[in-house]
Amino acid sequence: MAKSPLERQLEAQMKQEKQLANKQKREGERRAREQKKMEREAMIRERAASIVNGQPLIEGFRIMDKTTEEILRCLLACSAREDSHVIFCDDIFPSYVQMSIGLELEKLTQYGMVGGVFVFGNGGMLDLLPPAFSYFEEKKAAFALAFFCCFSPSRTGRVLE
Fold first, then answer.
1. What DSSP letter does each residue of 99-156 carry, written as one string?
2. What are phi and psi of 60, to 5 degrees?
3. What is the DSSP string of 31-82?
4. Contact 41, 49 (CB under 8 A)
5. Is 81 helix (H, G, I), strand (E, B) or coil?
6. Which residues contact 122 (CB under 8 A, 6 or more apart)?
7. Residue 86: strand, helix, or coil
8. In the structure, how many helices (H) and strands (E) does the chain have?
9. By CB neighbour count within 10 A (0-12 exposed, 13-18 middle, 19+ buried), where does 9 fall?
10. CA-to-CA distance for 6 and 35, rounded, in angstroms?
11. Considering Cα of 104, then 105, then 106, then 112, what sign does the dihedral take?
């Protein structure tokens, strides 16, 4: 039997209400995902900041933690590097950090070694900043200066032979 205009209008209205409810549900889920992502990023930033700020300063030079130094070495040695731009896959890093690449890259950002970080599925791209290229030399110089200052005659009161 044919539907009356009133029945068709009711069906159309119910269909629109259902579509609107589904759209609102998807929108709510999307907002929840975005909120969760922002909370995770904030947690990573805070954790990285606590690690970076806890690292020692030697003669005014902040020494990076060993894991971050290893990540920087991997990025500097990456075969897919053009000048300062690096495109990487997660497998260039040691296996013990592959689950925490986001944290390690955030630490490098906070140390001022990288910028323009874009991470995707199993890799990413970033730009190495000038301090990244000279970090290891500057670290040696800071340690040498600290050693020299510790054993200088003005500090110890005696002359080194």
1. GGHHHHHHHHHHHTSEEEEEEETTEEEEEE-HHHHHHHHHHHHHHHHHHHHHTSHHHH
2. 80, 5
3. HHHHHHHHHHHHHHHHHHHHHHHHSPEETTEEPPPHHHHHHHHHHHT-TTEE
4. no
5. strand
6. 89, 90, 91
7. strand
8. 5, 6
9. exposed
10. 43
11. positive
- Span 55-95, pLDDT tens digits: 998 888 899 999 999 999 999 998 888 889 999 998 899 99
Rounded distance, CA 21 to CA 61, Å? Answer: 57
Sheet with 81-82: strands ordered across: 81-82, 85-89, 123-128, 114-120
What are the tens digits of pLDDT across the range 10-61? Answer: 888 999 999 999 999 999 999 999 999 999 999 999 999 999 999 998 888 8
